[in-house]
């Protein structure tokens, strides 16, 4: 078995800003696993928030032994972007070897389309209203916030898209005081979910606060080992394959979270259709699907995912799985 690792950049349709900074391209790592006859593909997006870079991910993958399988991969790499790309490539390889789709291999029912959120990046209230107006036809908008001055932004987006459902992502940018002040207004403006309002290392305050809007753990939840620390603080967990370390752990985390009484959101980093494809399987029947990465791109993979009024569709086998 041979592993190949290379970097790909996909231009964004417009600059994308969150509370931590701005990007103009999706900078991804593409992995292929070859057995001499078939080749499987996976993609990951290293995230500096978790101490990752493309260089560190490539080094992790290049250090893998020549012989391993998907079961053993969990012991060779920690949860994170590197393991995600390899795990998904191994699933794709198995699908090609057997001529079966990944959902059949994993015992899942055939997936269907899922309505996905469309993300509005952090900007001035006026710009965010204009962006909301351009996308007011979309059923679900996700607003990037995370500053002490977010109330005008919330009002602006609601005014620009009065009929869209809205969820909010603070990316750890609020204090407990700011969140407490905003919470009643989230209710008033019809916000259905708030992601990671407080820093992951300071989220204990959530256990003492009312949660009139469901609160979702993102940076506080990586894999199944995270679940025990979320009790009493969160209602929903955001499953991202770049955090779980691939589809294998993502499916296990989803089952464990549902069994533990949490609801599930399935999210993504800003990547191509190859990164989103495995996550579509996890997103089936999720409370919220947030797999809009390709919608933010000016360019994408060959055989990209299909998006229409029914949502994001399962991948074509020429793309993945």
Q: Please bin the fraction of helical residues.
A: 25-40%
Shape: globular
Poorly predicted sequence stretches spanning 5 or more consecutive residues: none
Structural class: alpha/beta
Describe the largest sheet. 8 strands, parallel
Distance between the termini: 18 Å
Radius of gyration computed on alpha carbons: 19 Å
Total number of beta strands? 13
Strand order of the largest sheet: 4-5-6-7-8-9-10-11
The H-and-E topology, N to C, reads as EEEHHHHEHEHEHEEEHHEHEEE
- Number of helical stretches of at least 4 residues: 10
Q: What's the mean pLDDT score?
A: 96
| Approximate strand percentage | 15-25%
Description of the molecule:
- The protein has 321 residues and is α/β, with parallel strands linked by helices.
- Helices cover 31% and strands 22% of the residues.
- It has 10 helices and 13 strands.
- It has helices at residues 54-62, 70-76, 81-98, 102-105, 125-134, 151-160, 176-188, 241-244, 247-259, 273-282; strands spanning 2-18, 21-34, 39-44, 118-120, 140-144, 165-169, 191-195, 215-217, 236-239, 263-266, 288-289, 307-308, 311-312.
- The strands form 3 sheets. An 8-stranded parallel sheet has the order 4-5-6-7-8-9-10-11. It has a 3-stranded antiparallel sheet with strand order 1-2-3.
- A hairpin with a 2-residue loop joins strand 1 (2-18) and strand 2 (21-34).
- The model has no long low-confidence stretch (mean pLDDT 96).
């Amino acid at each position: 078995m041979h592993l190949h690792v290379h970097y790909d950049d996909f231009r964004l349709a417009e600059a994308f800003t969150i509370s931590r900074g701005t990007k103009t391209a999706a900078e991804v790592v593409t992995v292929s696993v070859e057995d001499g006859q078939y080749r499987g593909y996976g993609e990951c997006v290293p995230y500096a928030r978790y101490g990752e870079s493309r260089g560190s991910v490539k080094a992790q993958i290049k250090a893998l032994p020549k012989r391993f399988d998907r079961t053993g991969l969990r012991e060779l790499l920690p949860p994170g972007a590197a393991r995600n790309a390899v795990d998904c490539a191994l699933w794709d390889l198995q699908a090609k070897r057997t001529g079966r789709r990944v959902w059949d291999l994993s015992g899942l029912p055939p997936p269907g389309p899922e309505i996905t959120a469309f993300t509005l990046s952090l900007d001035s209230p006026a710009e965010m209203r204009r962006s909301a107006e351009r996308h007011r036809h979309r059923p679900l908008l996700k607003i990037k916030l995370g500053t002490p001055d977010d109330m005008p932004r919330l009002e602006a987006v609601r005014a620009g898209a009065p009929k869209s459902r809205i969820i909010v992502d603070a990316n750890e940018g609020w204090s407990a005081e700011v969140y407490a002040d905003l919470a009643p207004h989230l209710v008033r403006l019809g916000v259905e979910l708030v992601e990671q309002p407080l820093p992951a290392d300071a989220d204990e305050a959530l256990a003492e606060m009312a949660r009139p809007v469901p609160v979702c753990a993102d940076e506080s939840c990586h894999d199944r080992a995270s679940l025990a620390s979320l009790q009493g603080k969160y209602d929903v967990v955001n499953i991202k394959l770049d955090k779980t370390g691939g589809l294998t752990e993502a499916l296990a985390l989803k089952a464990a979270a549902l069994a533990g009484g949490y609801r599930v959101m399935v999210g993504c980093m800003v990547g191509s259709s190859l990164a989103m494809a495995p996550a579509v399987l996890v997103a089936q029947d999720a409370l919220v699907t947030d797999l809009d990465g390709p919608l933010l791109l000016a360019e994408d993979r060959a055989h990209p995912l299909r998006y229409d009024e029914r949502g994001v569709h399962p991948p074509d086998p020429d793309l993945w799985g």
